[in-house]
Amino acid sequence: MTDLMDRADRGELTEIDGGWELSFERRLRHSPERVWKALTTPEGLKCWLAEAVIDLAPGGRMNLNFRQPDHDFMPDRPEVRTQANEVLLVQPFTRFDHTFGSNPASVVSWRLAPDGDGTHLTLVHRVPASWKDSRRNVLSGWHHHMEGLDDAAQGIPHPWDWERWFALRDAYAAQIEAREAA
To answer: What is the pTM of this model?
Structure first.
């Protein structure tokens, strides 16, 4: 796994009641205000995650349309590529929570804190038990998407790389398998 990712960048997976909690921490070189725009605006989200329609208020919609290159794993069909999510909590420049994967039991929380001239970012994703077989996909997806978040804060798009994603997915699968075998 160390060949693919720095230990500090690796996502962590912890079993909790009703599923798992997945978490990542990053130090980004931009202010919380710039990172906030990358997380909460259609222009920012398009650079690193997905095309988005977002109503940034609790109860508002956050529709995502993932635009990675067409692949057998994720064919370019709306039923595979689109998600209807809900905004849950909006605390400008400090916290943003929303559902993910069109599943109300799947909740993502973005936590931002000033860190010198940058931002300390924590992603916490509550993954429901029904996603047990998808944990490796979720970990590798967030990992790969977040690799482009620092650039997205400057409006620079981060291209999707299926080879990178599959390599990360396999590494996370091995990590999960080893942990569960222990």
So the answer is: 0.92
